[in-house]
Design brief:
Length: about 150
């Protein structure tokens, strides 16, 4: 018997764990951009690596990471947050990591690939029942038994 059939709350717990872990990572990176590097520093860095509209892109990256991470943890508007975070990671892949190979220790794209894929996974699956989306909008409240069948 599938675990989700026997314990229909397990997928929601899994989504909660994934949302919190991913949210913490994105909040940390957004907070770093906001407080350590600052908008001017992020803009200058983006300009130096050829990101178009560096000031707008810096604002986008900072706030999508920070607010998107908070949204993931709270489970609020997770499909929107997940897509925006994945778009942000696609930009990081394209402009920063693509030419450096796969492995992160050499500046490669493995980390941004995992972050983007996880964000899209949450965008496509939803936040689950243990979320504000689940409480406010009934997202993720489908009968798990019928899905597992």
């Amino acid at each position: 018997m599938l675990p989700a059939r026997q314990f229909p709350f397990l997928p929601d717990i899994g989504l909660l764990i994934g949302r919190v872990a991913l949210g913490v990572l994105f909040i940390a990176h957004g907070w770093q951009k906001l407080t350590d590097t600052g908008h001017a520093g992020v803009t200058k860095m983006f300009e130096g690596i050829g990101i178009p509209l560096p000031s707008v892109s810096a604002t986008f990256a900072t706030w999508v990471e920070l607010l998107g991470g908070i949204a993931l943890i709270a489970g609020l508007l997770v499909p929107v947050a997940g897509v925006l975070l994945a778009v942000n990671m696609a930009g990081a892949f394209w402009y920063v990591h693509m030419d450096k190979g796969f492995f992160a220790d050499k500046g490669g794209y493995e980390f941004v690939m995992v972050l983007g894929a996880a964000a899209l996974t949450l965008a496509f699956t939803g936040a689950g029942r243990l979320s504000l989306d689940g409480v406010l909008f009934g997202r993720g409240s489908r009968d798990r038994e019928s899905i597992a069948a």
